[in-house]
Each structure stands twice: as structure tokens, then as C-alpha cells.
Amino acid sequence: MTPWLRAAYDREAPRYDDRFEAQQAPKIHRLDGLLPSAPGLTLDLGAGTGLLHRLTGRAVLQIDGSVGMLAQARGPRVLADLERLPLPTGVAAAAFCVTALIGPASPLPALAEALRVLTPGGWLALSVSRHEDPEPVARTLADLGFHILQHLDMLDDVGWIARRP
Ligand SMILES: C[S@@+](CC[C@H](N)C(=O)[O-])C[C@H]1O[C@@H](n2cnc3c(N)ncnc32)[C@H](O)[C@@H]1O
Description:
Elements: H1 3-34, E1 41-45, H2 51-56, E2 61-64, H3 67-71, E3 77-79, E4 92-98, H4 108-117, E5 118-129, H5 134-143, E6 147-154, E7 157-163
Parallel strand pairs: 1-2, 1-4, 2-3, 4-5
Antiparallel strand pairs: 5-7, 6-7
The protein binds S-adenosylmethionine.
Residues 1, 9, 24, 28, 46-48, 51, 64-66, 69, 81-83, 98-100, 102, 110 line the site of S-adenosylmethionine.
């Protein structure tokens, strides 16, 4: 996460829910409905202000690189970059990542980290904004060996339900 992006989200944090909750809510509910409530640890990668936990009640460990965004969240949270997760390998049964892969950086480091921390067979519910190019994300998921179960067309995002090999 670049310092510029972190600073932008730190600044945006107090207004984020007012500006974006209505936009994020349908995507969050759709992804939540498609992921089984697997026993074990579930991650919310790029959790922001914690809308997923607040809107669905799902127990998640929220991870984000913006201290301002996480300060608005409730429940367990960790300040960290998605490209370097402070978690052991194979620890999570499932992970959400909703509109959090942002900017021109390659999605590979963050998706490789998601792969590393998921247990074999672990679930990934991922979306990216249509303003980003989804093609590198789709290609990277395939290159990493994720099994793509569903492609999703979700308003201003596109998404995938995938499982770790
Ligand atoms: C558009 S918000 C989405 C937040 C939340 N998932 C939602 O649906 O409301 C993007 C979030 O991803 C976080 N983020 C983006 N890139 C990140 C990275 N490399 N490491 C950690 N957090 C990152 C930002 O700090 C921000 O909170």
C-alpha cells in the first residue's frame, strides 16, 4: 500500500460510511450469501471501516493498512499491508476482499498472500471496482491455481468466488 493511498484513506475514514455504505452494502451482502459459514478463522482483507462485520454480523479478523479506517471498525482488527500479512501459513478457512485491490500495483503480492494464509480448500470472496482493470486479477487468480467457482457481476464491482487448491 503506498503512503499516498494510506493517507487518502486515513483522511476519508470519518466520512467513509456516509459516502460509501449504501454502495458497498449490496456487494457485501451478495458475497456474504455466497460463502459458507466455514468453521475456523475468516479474514476480511482490506476491511476498511468494518462494514462487512457490521452489516452481516459475520465473525472476521479485519485487516487493513489505514489506521484511520480501522479506527472506525468494531471487533478484532489488525493494521497490516495485504502484501505482507502477519499471519501463519494455512491459518484461515475463508477470506473476503471487497473493493480493496486498488490502483495500478500488481494484484499478485496481495493474492499470493491470500493464497498463503488460506488453508487448502479455503474460500476466497473477492471483488474489484470496475474502475480497476479486472483482467490482471482474473489472470493472477488462475496463475496462482485458485479454482474459480463463480464470476460475479455486482453493480460497480466485478467479483469471484474461488477456492484455494
Ligand atoms: C474502498 S475501501 C473498501 C473497504 C471495505 N472492504 C468495504 O467494502 O467497505 C478499500 C480499503 O482497502 C484498504 N487497502 C487498500 N490496499 C491495501 C493494502 N495493500 N494493504 C492494506 N489495506 C489496503 C484501504 O486502506 C481501504 O480501507
